[in-house]
Amino acid sequence: MAKSRSQFICQQCGASFSKWAGKCENCGEWNSLVEQVISSGGSSAVDKSAGRGKALKTASVREAVAESSLERLSTGIDDLDVVLGGGFLAGGVVLVAGQPGIGKSTLLAQVAAYIAGSKSVLYVSGEESISQVKLRAERLGAADSEKLQLASSNSAEDIAASIQQGGYDLVIVDSVQTISLSEISSAPGSVSQITNSSNVIIRAAKSSGTAVILVGHVTKEGSIAGPKILEHLVDVVLNFEGDRYGGFRVVRAQKNRYGSTNEAAIFEMDDQGLRIVKNPSAELLAERRNLDGSIVLATMEGARPLLVEIQALVNPTNFGYPKRTASGFDLNRLNLLVAVLEKRTKLKLADKDIYVNVVGGLKLNDPAADLAVAMAIASASAGRSLDEGAVVFGEIGLGGEVRSAINWQARIKEAKKLGFTYAIAPKVHKDKFIKGVSDMRQALIDYLQ
């Protein structure tokens, strides 16, 4: 009889070791070694599996069913359907991730309530009891829905069996970090449990043609908790971003096999749940005061143009090392812009504390926000304000030059719609609405009054 022995396998790179260690010597990841029992007798696994496979059933391109022709499940929220590429696809697996309290369960309860009006939906919670899920569903208008079934379970085997045998059109699992396989001894949320539990559920979804939504936790750094392979296994990865204590919440697709990753849905939380913000630019600028350090940026949130206020505050530092703080903007990028401002203009910022804030709780990843942030810092430092009818956008290079921005026509169109009179933008964009600038120093001299 073949003897069994234990090996410790790295869940990130696959390297095997005879003893456990806190750090993988091959890839450098911490806490990634998981014990696995393997057989030491007889032939190898490759030899045993040789000859057991069956020939694949193939289909020509003409015979195969196109995914675009399959019926999609609408979420009832038009902007969210656009982010998903048209809705949930039968057999598709969607991973929704976001920080605690951002509104993941609220949004999915709203979606489940809408779809349950015509389709069969199962909501499985590994974190809450059925009564807790029921209270949320009733608050969001799903009290009388007979097609919305609730369950509380932490067993991946039970959830997979329900997907295969229950005849549901949509199954929501909240969350993947709380479920486990009985065959694996590690705790729920570990790398091996997340990987194997997700595999079982995904296989059940594909074989039964059921749309599945997995809710994922995030780490302190904001990345999805667990192995990176989880994001590779699913079809769509949705990131829920924003400030859970107020402001807007943004849902964008980080990965989408069925649609674009350039779309975003902007929500706001009220007592009835999450609602789509119809005109976010107007709401973001409603309370703006035209003071020094305040600049209106024309940015892009996915494929949607958006006007947002950039605020800067510059104070003399009381310590030897000046403080740089950014809310909604990358801190490394802020330090780079401060260095360019000092080198390419006459501003002296080495002894100044600098604070930058993006109003509304938004997080900017747009390179064209550089010029607006730089002008906000210069405006706050010099005590000069920009004209009230101006919007700003443009990327800044290390030489201080202002570079072109993508989708500049959409940015201008949004600015005109809200009554702005001109845009301070890269000179390469030819338009009557634009007052072009070729470098950052020219923009500061000509337009900061």
UniProtKB/TrEMBL annotation:
<dbReference type="GO" id="GO:0003684">
    <property type="term" value="F:damaged DNA binding"/>
</dbReference>
<dbReference type="GO" id="GO:0005524">
    <property type="term" value="F:ATP binding"/>
</dbReference>
<dbReference type="InterPro" id="IPR027417">
    <property type="entry name" value="P-loop_NTPase"/>
</dbReference>
<dbReference type="Pfam" id="PF13481">
    <property type="entry name" value="AAA_25"/>
</dbReference>
<comment type="similarity">
    <text>Belongs to the RecA family. RadA subfamily.</text>
</comment>
<keyword id="KW-0863">Zinc-finger</keyword>
<keyword id="KW-0227">DNA damage</keyword>
<feature type="short sequence motif" description="RadA KNRFG motif">
    <location>
        <begin position="255"/>
        <end position="259"/>
    </location>
</feature>
<dbReference type="GO" id="GO:0000725">
    <property type="term" value="P:recombinational repair"/>
</dbReference>
<feature type="binding site">
    <location>
        <begin position="98"/>
        <end position="105"/>
    </location>
    <ligand>
        <name>ATP</name>
    </ligand>
</feature>
<dbReference type="InterPro" id="IPR041166">
    <property type="entry name" value="Rubredoxin_2"/>
</dbReference>
<dbReference type="GO" id="GO:0008270">
    <property type="term" value="F:zinc ion binding"/>
</dbReference>
<dbReference type="InterPro" id="IPR020588">
    <property type="entry name" value="RecA_ATP-bd"/>
</dbReference>
<dbReference type="Pfam" id="PF18073">
    <property type="entry name" value="Zn_ribbon_LapB"/>
</dbReference>
<dbReference type="Pfam" id="PF13541">
    <property type="entry name" value="ChlI"/>
</dbReference>
<keyword id="KW-0479">Metal-binding</keyword>
<comment type="function">
    <text>Plays a role in repairing double-strand DNA breaks, probably involving stabilizing or processing branched DNA or blocked replication forks.</text>
</comment>
<feature type="domain" description="RecA family profile 1">
    <location>
        <begin position="69"/>
        <end position="218"/>
    </location>
</feature>
<keyword id="KW-0862">Zinc</keyword>
<dbReference type="InterPro" id="IPR014721">
    <property type="entry name" value="Ribsml_uS5_D2-typ_fold_subgr"/>
</dbReference>
<dbReference type="GO" id="GO:0016787">
    <property type="term" value="F:hydrolase activity"/>
</dbReference>
<keyword id="KW-0547">Nucleotide-binding</keyword>
<dbReference type="GO" id="GO:0005829">
    <property type="term" value="C:cytosol"/>
</dbReference>
<feature type="region of interest" description="Lon-protease-like">
    <location>
        <begin position="353"/>
        <end position="449"/>
    </location>
</feature>
<comment type="function">
    <text>DNA-dependent ATPase involved in processing of recombination intermediates, plays a role in repairing DNA breaks. Stimulates the branch migration of RecA-mediated strand transfer reactions, allowing the 3' invading strand to extend heteroduplex DNA faster. Binds ssDNA in the presence of ADP but not other nucleotides, has ATPase activity that is stimulated by ssDNA and various branched DNA structures, but inhibited by SSB. Does not have RecA's homology-searching function.</text>
</comment>
<keyword id="KW-0067">ATP-binding</keyword>
<dbReference type="InterPro" id="IPR020568">
    <property type="entry name" value="Ribosomal_Su5_D2-typ_SF"/>
</dbReference>
<dbReference type="InterPro" id="IPR003593">
    <property type="entry name" value="AAA+_ATPase"/>
</dbReference>
<dbReference type="GO" id="GO:0140664">
    <property type="term" value="F:ATP-dependent DNA damage sensor activity"/>
</dbReference>
<protein>
    <recommendedName>
        <fullName>DNA repair protein RadA</fullName>
    </recommendedName>
</protein>
<keyword id="KW-0378">Hydrolase</keyword>
<keyword id="KW-0346">Stress response</keyword>
<keyword id="KW-0238">DNA-binding</keyword>
<keyword id="KW-0234">DNA repair</keyword>
<dbReference type="InterPro" id="IPR004504">
    <property type="entry name" value="DNA_repair_RadA"/>
</dbReference>
